[in-house]
Records
---
Amino acid sequence: MTALVAMLRKDLLLQWRGRAQIVAIFAFGAATLLLFSFAIGPDSVALRQHAAGFLWLGLLLASTLSLADSFEGEMEEQALEGLLLLPASARAIYYGKAIANCAQLTLMGAALVSLIVVLYDAGTLRLLSLLGVIVLGATGLSAPGTLYAAMTAQSRARQTLLPLLLFPLVVPVLLAAVKATSLLILGDPMGQLGSWASLLGVFAVVHWALGGMFFERVVED
Amino acid sequence: MPQPTQRPVPQAIVALGAALLCIGSYWGLAKAPAEVFMGDVQRIMYVHVPTAWNAMLALTYAFICAVSFLFTNSWKWDNRLEAALEVGVVLSLLLCTQGAIWAKPTWGVWWDWDPRLTTTAVLVFAFGGILALRTFVDDPMKRAVWSAVACIVAFADVPLVYFSVKWWNSLHQAQSTPETVSKAFHWPLRINAFGILFLWTGLLTLRARTAALRLRSEIAPPLPERPRALSEARIAGGGG
């Protein structure tokens, strides 16, 4: 547990020191939201209806940059090997990094929500529920994302490989998060929010368990 | 590492599979009666349904190979994994294509976001991505471990993808099994199912042999350098 806290602290500190990169990734996500509205046209009803989809697509696209970036530093001067030599389990390294990635994605998701309110007039008063959906969605994206980022950072064509591996895998997250967010924005007369949130929760549990189980094999020589 | 065997058994299995597929397809196209509601369009079922069964079987075998490799670290499982992934992706791609061909006259559209159709499309991309990963990793051990891990993770994701899409949208008819179709359709369906099974099993064995040969060349020590004078003399004389 101490090792996990130390790893998390290290990753959060690295993110804080490289905050210019986080701002750049957020700007990328914001630019995609702007472009999506050009694709649909100035129909405010249609834009509001698709706002949840745009939000999660923007976050998913931005996540590939932030996830890849989380292992970029570890590849320089064999830093990952140094980490593995420390008296800490590989599982602690994985969970530390995955939690830090999840925090970053949650922050980015919350910031992008403010943009969809402005651009698409797609707000909700159920802020805590919306935050819960963003946290669950970010948790689902960061678990397999961190595992795959560890692989692709050490391979050729890493910019292509990470989205290629991650996007098909996170289809359930995208579907459930879009549906849940949409229900919060447009109304939930049938009370379906809980089912979609449960799906997000099950996905997160399965992939956090698998990530912790296999990370050691992925990073060992 | 064991030498890859050269017995012609896989070729014989491929030939048997191809023969069965020809017999089953002829039976399905010429002998079996047309379905009451769909007419001749239904005849694609004789390849579509066996392809679906075999695609799932091949990807399940890939999962078994992945788990076996991680437990045993034996290269033979990595070779089989590579072959099973390729066979599974090709069969899934064929399944999507046949589904689209059947959907146009039946549903009026080439594609619908039905759970099984969408899950198959997601499988093509998920397992196709693992094949891409294998292409871009040079170290054989890393390639084997990473693709085995990615295969297990993708396989574990299949039920989640299926149920999420099912909640989202559902249109597909009930799954076809020998119990859900008339007895007149049984034989061509079963013959084609075994035909495709034999075909991919033989091809998988041959592909695993190719993978084993490539692995041998990758992990073989480099050949000792020839003395410079001797090499130059051979080049000048045109010798090999």
---
Amino acid sequence: MPLSPASRNRRFVAELLPHGASAYNLARWLSRNESDAHDIVQESFARALQYFDGFRGGDARSWLLRIVRNTASTWLSARPPTAHADPGDEAELLEPAPGSGAVRDADPLRAVISQDEARSLRQAIAQLPVEYREVLVLREFEDLSYRQIAAIVACPIGTVMSRLARARDELGAVMRAEAPSS
Amino acid sequence: MNHEESQALLEAYHDEQLEIADTVRIEAHLAGCEPCRAWLRERRTLRARLQAAPLHYRMPTDLAAVINAQTVPAQAVPAHGAPPRRWLLESQWPRALAASLLVGMIGLWAGHLLTVRQGAGDAWVGAYVRSTLSSRPLDVLSSDHHTVKPWLSARLPYSPPVPEMTGPENELLGARVDYIERTTIAALVYRHGKHQVDVFVWPERERPDPATAAAPIAGFRLASTRVQGFNAVFVSDMSASELAGFRERWTELAASK
């Protein structure tokens, strides 16, 4: 039985709006600039609302992120690859929450990171090929499992892992180049 | 676990995505392997940095407002408007409740079914993926069944059929012995076009259950067959129809031996 429009919308709001921040962060990293991210997220929510009857419950965030990812790739393929990449400044970014990220307390040192280092890290991520960038964002910032990521980007789990490995190798190389002393 | 194997799995270990058995094996390896420990330390440093740096973009408040406006109107209507509509909606409550209970029960049942069937396919897909990740996907590398078959029979309590499938389209690459559901099993590895196909073969009446999921698991498809007293499960990343074709050809050849 189809839900009444009102309860359908209530469910939509309850299930998907909480993941707006994740949706935006992914769109922002994929498009690499604010105005595209804005439009991608808006369109993604419109699509999500349209397809919501097909959502069978469960992992709402993955479901939404898959839509965001597909919307972004259509969006980005429709414009010149030179569209400007803008990693943004501090004002656009959230302060890292203590205990957030893929693994809590990964490092007790929990390095304080300088603004310069943070900026070069952002730039390095922004310069990764989009296939590497998307799996990195989904894994490190969204804490999704290989299986969930594989479903979102529609590729085998082994591919998720090898792309993650490449992304991290590249970032590691950038870090070593930045700080040869450490 | 040797060094090559562990390197193929370290990334997944770092991400805590390994099954318990592999985790135990890799930790045993790590205890004695400084290069692997150093590699892991580097990954952890990177993660610590990613967590310490501000890397989450803040959703602009106007965008949040737009999205709210996109979804809210239909919800807002009854609040402003006609009481009869509200009353009508409310009168449907018992029916809606019954329906949602039913939907919930069906969902639970379907979910159960899905986990059972997925569980059945997962082990095969896992073995396939690990072999493609590993730097050493085959234990015996030969397109000659006269080499592969004795190699397998020497390591297993049975001697599985090993159809050769020579030709431009299909080719026997070799075999390995896999460990699935506490049983050692022969895995024949073929090439079909550019795809790798793993065929797991074991005696018909023995564990594990050859049931496979019909839907692809993480992009991999499964198929199964029975021939000459053996179960065979096929795993590959090719299309359903290609896999069905491959299974037919393989079964035909196996039966003609």
